[in-house]
TrEMBL record:
InterPro entries in the cross-refs: Aldolase_TIM, Chorismate_II_sf, Class-I_DAHP_synthase, CM_dom_sf, CM_II_prokaryot, DAHP1/KDSA, DAHP_syn_2
Name of the protein in question: Chorismate mutase
GO terms assigned for molecular function: aldehyde-lyase activity; chorismate mutase activity; transferase activity
Pfam families xref list: CM_2 (PF01817), DAHP_synth_1 (PF00793)
Residues covered by the Chorismate mutase domain: 1-91
SMART domains from the UniProt entry: CM_2
Organism of this sequence: Peribacillus muralis
């Protein structure tokens, strides 16, 4: 046998052993999963450091060589870590699909807000000023929306501003304005609540609680809104992955509130041409992987009025259930986001363009 053949034969033996190690690891994995389920019944922790130390010391005592004990410890610590992962995941994945998932519920969730079924296949429009500034300001916007048959009114009363010196919103007075205007025009009110202590009082005035991007992982707020029956519009965090976004929704669903609407509002990237980068592919991913309605906030994702029409068209074309956009009677003097809110002419032009587009899309479906 020449040297090359010897090498090949040795490698064949190594592969044989690798297969045996794999099958032993697989058997170990199955045992570890059973241990995990037993621990769950006993209500004890998955991670057991003293058990791991005991196993490492046995490995040290029984080590026949040639590997040194430090190498073996690293290998076995990896095995322990993979085993704990199996135990945590067998609990989550095998016994209980995530409540947001299509595995848990295959049909689309439809959230009814003031007679509008968000998620039923018809595009919905959530329109209003960035911040509530006065009764007249909100009333003017509502009147303009009403002319177009729109009845989902947004407006911020509690404003999470980047600078503490910027306008922080009118608070409860802002909610009262939203509520009385919405009664006058028969509209549903969507507004952001920033903390649990605002929640109870706010519920008297609003129809949809918005959890803003900066609060997407405020877990106590998510749990608190989950304990209500009021629909929740959950915005994607500034730098949140889709996985983190879905898990934030899970916090709300796990408390029993099934009326959750997801809102893609752009994410932070290196790109500076837009305020945020609209992650348009998040829409079909969320539609595939969750049963929840998905809306796109074209104002915050772009921060540019010239991009509102194309991004809204793209959002609807790719499967969004609705569009959120900001409108102000006089954006130049708005107390927040003055550059990105539409005035009434721009708003009507926007709606004309989107209505034509979505009717056309319905009449002439694009064959893929
Ligand atoms: C399997 C167990 O759970 C964990 C994983 C271990 C392992 O892979 O051997 C050991 C201790 C625990 O941290 C166990 O407790 O026995």
């Amino acid at each position: 046998m020449n040297k090359m053949e010897t090498l090949n034969n040795l490698r064949i033996d190594v592969e044989q052993l690798d297969n045996e190690i794999l099958s032993l690891l697989s058997k170990r994995g199955e045992l570890v999963k059973k241990i995990g389920l037993t621990k769950k019944e006993l209500n004890v922790n998955i991670f057991d450091p003293s058990r791991e130390l005991e196993l490492l010391s046995k490995i040290d005592n029984n080590n026949p060589g040639p590997y040194n004990i430090e190498s073996l410890k690293r290998i076995f610590k990896e095995i322990f870590a993979a085993s704990k992962f199996l135990q945590y995941n067998s609990e989550l994945k095998e016994n209980k699909p995530f409540l947001f998932s299509r595995d848990y519920k295959s049909e689309d969730t439809i959230v009814n807000v003031n007679g509008q079924n968000i998620g039923d296949g018809i595009p919905r429009f959530i329109i209003g000023p960035c911040a509530v500034e006065s009764f007249e300001q909100v009333q003017k916007v509502a009147a303009e929306m009403s002319k177009r048959g729109l009845n989902l009114l947004r407006g911020g009363a509690f404003k999470p501003r980047t600078s503490p010196y910027d306008f922080q919103g009118l608070g409860i007075d802002g909610l009262k304005i939203l509520s009385s205007v919405s009664k006058e025009y028969d509209m549903g009110v969507i507004t952001e609540i920033m903390s649990t202590d605002q929640l109870e009082e706010a519920l008297e005035y609003i129809d949809v609680i918005q959890v803003g991007a900066r609060n997407m992982q405020n877990f106590s707020l998510l749990k608190a809104v989950g304990q209500t029956n009021t629909p929740v519009l959950l915005k994607r965090g500034l730098s949140a992955t889709i996985e983190e976004f879905k898990l934030a929704a899970e916090y709300i669903l796990a408390e029993g509130n099934t009326n959750v609407i997801l809102c893609e509002r752009g994410i932070r990237t290196y790109e500076t041409a837009t305020r945020n980068t609209l992650d348009i592919s998040a829409v079909p991913i969320l539609k595939q992987e969750t049963h929840l309605p998905v809306v796109v906030d074209v104002t915050h994702s772009t921060g540019r009025k010239d991009l509102l029409i194309p991004t809204a068209k793209a959002a609807l074309a790719i499967g969004a259930d609705g569009i959120m956009a900001e409108v102000h009677p006089n954006p130049a003097i708005a107390l927040s986001d003055s550059k990105q809110q539409m005035n009434f002419d721009e708003f009507n032009h926007f709606m004309d363009a989107i209505e034509t587009f979505s009717n056309k899309a319905v009449l002439e479906p694009v064959n893929s």
